[in-house]
Write a structure and sequence with these properties.
- By secondary structure, the protein is mostly helical.
- The chain is built from 19 helices and no strands.
- It has helices at residues 22-26, 45-73, 84-101, 103-112, 118-131, 136-141, 143-156, 162-173, 176-183, 188-203, 212-228, 233-254, 260-298, 303-306, 312-317, 323-328, 332-350, 354-374, 385-412.
- Helix 8 (162-173) packs antiparallel against helix 19.
- It is globular and about 65 Å long.
């Protein structure tokens, strides 16, 4: 195929996507994400190392406070119950098997009896190995979830100042679901956060011009979500596939890319192959157990124990203003709505059309997740935590958008929003 004369022969992948779109280039939000990624390539190694260590310090401090508080006044002050105890027992048995028979037998046992949640079992196992068989040891390992979220925020907010990142990170850690992510030893919240990260990377834009590392990171998040809780994998997979389709639609609207379809397919391959490399081995080993567990708890003899007996209105408000939403979000749902309204006003004032496409893609994914978890009568605060995770990350993305846009238009003297 002959390259159009408007695109140089040595044009990069980025130039072939957004470089030819004057409207996209002139947008005030083009310097960074809803919803977009600003790479860290222009930062020095010492800056990167400092920020990673800062993430680790904040994660350790937050985890220590949560474990201390829970150990004295909360969940860890009581005997461990289900679901946590199932992962504790599995991890303790596998660790003792390592001590007695070695790593080779441990691997054989994994093949014979794959764990229900490989990530949770391994976190508990490592916690017991490091700190002994203490109730708080697995909860301490959940600090890695906090660390991972802070690293992700560094990646998304890299073009902003360190003070802005600190404020937005502190804001993220005040959401109730982050406290539960530490003291509740179950994979639901990790799965939800990893899924939400993948959605933001894929549908939050830009996607095809972000580079291979961006696609691989999205694939890693997808694979981690699938591996953390295989029993909810149908929801995880559907949400991310919808994100890929919505993101592809957005790319066709905001750019005039040469060979755009090929670039989208290439990005999808990178993402899906990375996810498959991470999660497929476990699914090949444990697919029978996964299917049996899903059927038994959704349609079988245990389904009634998880059913929420309420009317249609209560069913569909459960994860927003109902019991599930109160546990994971509380009053932060209202702040998210205020942030969304503020971002809509700013986008309308500056005439930013790209933001509406990206926000629309995220909205489609969010509505899909909402329908998937709200339609069944089987409910618990943890089964639908994907909705809270999406609202948390989109709230941060919207606040970052407001920061970038108001900074840009204020510097240009066009008008001041704040």
């Amino acid at each position: 195929m002959t390259r159009p004369p408007s695109i140089p022969a040595d044009a990069t992948e980025t130039e072939m996507t957004y470089g030819s779109n004057p409207e996209a280039d002139s947008s005030p939000s083009n310097k960074g994400p809803l919803l977009s990624h600003a790479g860290a390539s222009n930062k020095g190694l010492w800056t990167v190392l400092f920020r990673v260590l800062l993430c680790a310090a904040l994660a350790i401090a937050f985890t220590a406070v949560q474990v201390y508080q829970s150990f004295h006044y909360g969940r860890l002050a009581l005997p461990i119950t289900y679901d946590d105890i199932s992962y504790f027992v599995d991890a303790q048995w596998r660790l003792e098997h390592i001590y007695e028979h070695g790593l080779l037998e441990f691997a054989k046992d994994y093949i014979r009896t794959p764990p229900h949640s490989p990530v949770s079992t391994m976190l508990a196992l490592i916690g017991f190995a490091l700190f002994g068989f203490e109730d708080w040891a697995p909860a301490a390992m959940n600090g890695l979830i906090v660390f991972g979220l802070l690293l992700f925020l560094q990646y998304r907010l890299w073009d902003l100042s360190l003070s802005v990142w600190l404020v937005l990170s502190a804001y993220a850690l005040t959401w109730p679901l982050m406290g539960h992510a530490v003291v509740e030893f179950r994979p639901d919240i990790l799965t939800a956060l990893a899924t939400a990260c993948a959605v933001v990377l894929i549908a939050g834009g830009p996607w095809i011009n972000s580079g291979a590392s961006h696609h691989y990171l999205a694939g890693f998040c997808m694979g981690l979500a699938l591996l953390a809780k295989p029993s909810i994998s149908p929801v995880t997979f559907l949400v991310i596939i919808v994100a890929m389709l919505a993101g592809a639609w957005t790319e066709t609207r905001v750019s005039a890319a040469f060979e755009k379809r090929d670039l989208i397919v290439r990005s999808w391959k990178r993402c899906l192959l990375t996810a498959a490399a991470l999660a497929a081995p476990h699914y090949l080993l444990g697919w029978q157990h996964i299917l049996s567990y899903i059927h038994m708890n959704v349609f079988g003899k245990y389904a009634s124990s998880w059913q929420y007996q309420a009317g249609v209105r209560q069913q569909f408000s459960y994860y927003l203003t109902g019991p599930g939403g109160q546990v994971m979000m509380g009053r932060w749902l209202g702040l998210w709505a205020v942030t969304l309204a503020a971002a809509a006003v700013v986008a309308a004032r500056v005439g930013d059309k790209r933001i509406w496409h990206h926000a629309g893609a995220i909205a489609v994914v969010g509505l899909t997740a909402y329908a998937l978890v709200s339609s069944p009568t089987v409910k618990s605060p943890f089964l639908g935590v994907i909705l809270a995770a999406l609202l948390l990350l989109t709230s941060i993305e919207l606040q970052a958008y407001l920061t970038r846009t108001t900074r840009t238009v204020s510097a240009s003297g066009r008008f001041r929003v704040i």
